[in-house]
Structures are given as structure tokens and as C-alpha cells.
Design a protein that fits this description.
This protein has ten helices and 14 strands. By secondary structure, it is an alpha/beta fold. It folds into three domains: 250 residues, Amidase signature (AS) enzymes; 53 residues, no CATH class; 53 residues, no CATH class. A six-stranded mixed sheet has the order 3-5-4-8-10-9. The protein has a two-stranded antiparallel ribbon with strand order 1-2. The protein has a two-stranded antiparallel sheet with strand order 6-7.
Length: 388
């Protein structure tokens, strides 16, 4: 089966067969194709499974599959289309889920060897909402141990690599999710974020990701805490990763709002956007900071983006105040030393390539923590940096 292209049945009122690469299409377009009966949910699922079978090994993005139950769910979705039933916005869409979200009948580990055999009996709230909207969940994607790093390695499944460069990381902690979307293994993904775990991998793999405001998407069923916990983690949020901004809006409409237990107490009523045209927005840029210098090549692309915005009608572009910094110098005299140590660690470190079984970032995290000692009051801190 060729993965680059897939042939479909004739669309209505057309004599021409069409050839489309499913792995580059938005979730919105894929769902529309199912509704139009251009392709069945089962055929779409088989496409993604074949893509994973052929191209996942060097990426290691998808770490668990549930093919049998997914095919059953896809067949049921196709039967609903044939009957003319009312269809949800994600009806029939095959998708994967970041591993810390509990998925009924599918192994959920959060990258923790202690939970390697954990198969939940119920879905996380977010997974349940996606399924009610019609999604067909067929697998889980990789992450760092307990979703707590900026790369995606754990002792259970190894390292996830960037689909654009296998010697580099896709980021973390939703690195497997981002790599799967970018590689065309899934139509949509569900990730989680506290300090960049959706946004960083989305940036590093060239896709779209959204961290919702805290509290508007239920995080019940996300590990950690322990399996089956009924408490909600502080600060962490769940959000979508996709191949278009429009897909993020569709997914957020599905995910946002109280769960069944909370629905009697509150409802979500977000204000409409204040602007609808790009030219109506103000844009702020921050390309210089003495604590965190920007690479020249990156700076050039950012400057080109500013010019593109101006060309699109954005007239109010605010530049940073160059003398002001909120970066590492807040740590006091040791700030430059901490910065240099972090930069040196990044240069020494390498994302694990194909076949590698270890990722070294944790070494530098431990070294960094051992080198820095806080010894002041709660209001002011002094740091002692020692040589390795």
C-alpha cells in the first residue's frame, strides 16, 4: 500500500477519481470527506495504521496501538453515516492520544515503568468528550517520564525523534503527539501543558497547538496523579495539537466545558473574539534579551514574519524595550554563569537518534540542580555555582 497517496471512491457528481495525501489534510477536511462518503472511517484508519507500520520505527512517536477495537469503532461510525444519523464534529476521525490520558481498554503508562501494565477501565474526561464527538481512538503517543521534561524519552518506550531531523528532539512533553501529527500518523491529537508541553513540541515540529486557559477543560483522568485518581492536577491543562488553527478551534469546542459531575454547577460562556481581521490586532515582538540571545538565523525569520504581518495590514507592531530584561539576570550576579552553564549543556547534549536507548538531558538537569543551591529568604535568593 502506497503511503504517499490513497485512491478514493468517486465523489458525488464527479467522474474523476481523486488522489489525496491524508497525512497532510486538516482534521476538518478529513471529517468532511467522511461525511461526504468520499472515504470511510475504516479506510482512513487503515491508512494511518499503514503509515505507522512503515514509518514509525525511526520516529517512535506512537507507542501503543489498539487496532481491533479501533476497527470496530470505525465500522460503527461508517454504519451511522450510511443510516444518515446525526454526526458529531469529529465523526469517524481516527486519532491518537498522549499517553498520560487514561483510555478505556488501552494501556496508559505516562512513561512510568511502574504502570507498564495499566489498562484503565474508564476514559479521561477529555477522551470521553472526543469519543462522544465521534473520534475513533486507536493509539497512544510517547512522552517523557511522568510528562515532565522538554524532550520525550522514558525507560519504557525510549526516545521520540523529530520527523524533520531524526537527530533532533520534537520537544516535550507532548513530543510523541506533535511528531505523530507532523508525520501524518493521525488526524488530531490530545496533549497536556503546564510550562510549554503543547506549545514547545508544536513549534519544534511545525504544527499548531493550543494551551487553553486553566479550568475550562477538565483534566480528570490525566496521570500523574495515580491511576484512577479523582483529583485534578494543579496548573496542568489539556489541549489539542493539529495541522491547522481551524482544527484547534473545532477541538476546543469539543473539549471545553464542565464534565458530567460539574455540569449542574457551572457552564462555559466564553466571550466572542474582539477582532476577526488580522489588521485589527496589535502585535508585540520581543527579539532581544541580554540574558537569552536569539540566534541570527532565527532572528531573521522572526523579522521576516513582522514584515509579513505589516504586509497583511497589521500597522500596530510594538517593539520590545531593549534595556529591560526579565530573563536569567533576575537570579542576581550568578545569572550569566547559570545562562552559560545551560547553553553549554544544550550544546553538549544531543537528541537520541534511531536505535538509541538513552537520552542525556536528565544528566544535565541533575547536574544543574546539584550546582545551584538556594540559600536566601523567600523574597531574595543567592546562588552558589560550583564547577563540575
Amino acid at each position: 500500500m502506497a503511503l504517499a497517496n490513497l485512491y478514493y471512491r468517486e465523489p458525488p457528481k464527479s467522474k474523476d477519481r481523486i488522489v489525496i495525501d491524508l497525512g497532510t489534510q486538516s482534521a476538518r477536511e478529513l471529517a468532511a470527506m467522511i461525511r461526504r462518503k468520499q472515504i470511510s472511517s475504516r479506510e482512513m484508519l487503515d491508512y494511518f495504521l499503514a503509515a505507522i507500520a512503515e514509518r514509525n520505527e525511526p520516529l517512535n512517536a506512537v507507542v501503543t496501538l489498539d487496532e481491533e477495537n479501533a476497527r470496530r469503532a470505525a465500522d460503527e461510525a461508517d454504519e451511522a453515516v450510511a443510516r444518515g444519523d446525526a454526526l458529531g464534529p469529529l465523526h469517524g476521525l481516527p486519532m491518537t492520544i498522549k499517553d498520560p490520558f487514561e483510555t478505556a481498554g488501552i494501556r496508559t503508562t505516562a512513561g512510568n515503568p511502574i504502570w507498564k501494565d495499566h489498562v484503565p477501565a474508564r476514559d479521561a474526561d477529555t477522551v470521553a468528550k472526543l469519543k462522544r464527538a465521534g473520534a475513533v481512538v486507536f493509539g497512544k503517543t510517547n512522552l517523557p517520564f511522568m510528562a515532565s521534561d522538554v524532550q520525550s524519552y522514558n525507560d519504557l518506550f525510549g526516545c521520540t525523534n523529530n520527523p524533520y531531523d531524526l537527530t533532533r528532539s520534537p520537544g516535550g512533553s507532548s513530543g510523541g503527539a506533535a511528531a505523530a501529527v507532523a508525520a501524518g500518523f493521525t488526524s488530531l491529537e490530545l496533549g497536556s501543558d503546564i510550562g510549554g508541553s503543547i506549545r514547545t513540541p508544536s513549534h519544534w515540529t511545525g504544527i499548531y497547538g493550543h494551551k487553553p486557559s486553566f479550568g475550562i477543560v477538565s483534566n480528570l483522568g490525566h496521570m500523574p496523579g495515580p491511576p484512577g485518581a479523582q483529583s485534578r492536577p494543579d496548573l496542568g491543562v489539556a489541549g489539542p495539537l493539529a495541522r491547522s488553527a481551524e482544527d484547534l478551534a473545532i477541538a476546543l469546542d469539543v473539549l471545553a466545558g464542565p464534565n458530567e459531575n460539574d455540569a449542574a454547577g457551572w457552564r462555559l460562556d466564553l466571550a466572542r473574539p474582539r477582532h476577526e481581521h488580522l489588521s485589527d490586532f496589535r502585535v508585540a515582538t520581543w527579539f532581544e534579551d541580554p540574558a537569552i540571545p536569539v540566534d541570527d538565523a532565527v532572528r531573521a525569520r522572526l523579522e521576516a514574519t513582522v514584515e509579513a504581518l505589516r504586509g497583511a495590514g497589521v500597522h500596530s507592531v510594538l517593539r520590545e524595550r531593549r534595556a529591560r530584561s526579565r530573563g536569567l539576570p533576575r537570579f542576581g550576579p550568578a545569572g550569566p554563569q547559570l545562562r552559560d552553564r545551560a547553553v553549554t549543556s544544550r550544546r553538549e547534549d544531543r537528541a537520541c537518534g534511531p536505535g538509541s536507548r538513552r537520552f542525556r538531558s536528565w544528566v544535565y538537569v541533575r547536574r544543574f540542580r546539584s550546582n545551584v543551591r538556594a540559600c536566601g529568604s523567600s523574597r531574595r535568593y543567592r546562588y552558589r555555582v560550583r564547577d563540575s
